[in-house]
Amino acid sequence: MTERALTERALTERAARGYVSRMYARRAIAVALSLLAPAVTGCGYRGLADKVIPHGGHDPTPLARCTVAQSHEQPLVTEWPAPYKARLEAMLQDGAVAVDYSGCELRIIDGCKVPGSYKWNKTTLSRDTTDIRNEDELFAKLPVGALALSGELKAAGSLQVQTTVTGQLRLVGGATRDATLGAECPGATHLVTALSIGAFKLMAGGSVSGEAGVALPGAGLKGATRESTSILREAGDPASCARATKEHPSPDCRSPIQIFLLPIQRSIPLNVLSPIPDEPG
């Protein structure tokens, strides 16, 4: 048996016994192969490396693009479906909220009861505009809702999110990451530590239309351009946001705008990891 085959077998058997995770086992094999590359023919090595780490170690799927979004743990939720927003507002009154957040999906874990409560904190009224001109910016700036908005971005040419924030609901009390270890919480990945509320508008636009014609001889060309925009969705009344008080937000300016998440860290003993499954031949 060649040195390369012995190295692969040893690393794979070690991972199967639970000493390293799947990800680290594959990386270890890839590193071993790179060290043995001079002794292996180019074609054989390249083919084996592609099987070990397809696509050069990069996930080309749209979901993977959301995991590298800007402010991944502080995503805008303006494009979260309305029933989810309503459910979140209701659960914020009953205790700390745990969610499953991975890729482009954000899901509330309904049965996970975590101690804690949310306190209203009025902040200085702030307005912001997020411009989105291509899919890379869409997945980076608006991961929650990016998949649904992809078609609208292509049709409109650009998107713009205008937000008005009047304050936050912040988590206080005894909520900790350890409190999510109950039987109903295995799917929870994050705790909601704060929620900015206010009003927003999602605008579609940026497509330019023009008119051109020939004037009288000697007058040259004439032309005009205009930029068309339209409101796709909106919630809350920006004008009423200024009526928030230290005690309560304005009833017409409390739509969820941005959610702040704390990752749940769980220690998993290495000896309970499942072995690496056999790769198809």
Kindly list the characteristics that best describe this protein.
about 280 residues, alpha+beta, 2 domains, seven-stranded antiparallel beta sheet, 7 strands, about 25% helix, globular
Sum this structure up briefly.
The chain is an alpha+beta fold and 281 residues long. Helices cover 26% and strands 32% of the residues. The two termini are 18 Å apart.
The average pLDDT value, as a whole number, equals: 74
Helix content range? 25-40%
Spatial extent as radius of gyration: 26 Å
The number of helices is 7
Beta-strand share of residues? 25-35%
**Low-confidence runs (pLDDT<50, min 5 residues)?**
14-25, 39-43, 207-226, 269-276
The SS-based structural class is alpha+beta
- Gap between N and C termini: 18 Å
Number of strands: 7
**Domain module count:** 2
Q: Which outline best applies?
A: globular
SSE run: HHHHHEEEHHEEEE
Q: What does the main sheet amount to? A: 7 strands, antiparallel
Structural description of this entry:
This protein has seven helices and seven strands, in the order H-H-H-H-H-E-E-E-H-H-E-E-E-E. The chain has helices at 3-16, 22-36, 42-52, 62-66, 82-91, 135-141, 146-156, and strands at 98-102, 105-108, 117-132, 158-172, 190-214, 221-235, 255-263. A hairpin with a 2-residue loop joins strand 1 (98-102) and strand 2. The longest helix has 15 residues, at 22-36. The chain is globular and about 50 Å long. The model is unreliable at 14-25, 39-43, 207-226 and 269-276 (pLDDT under 50).
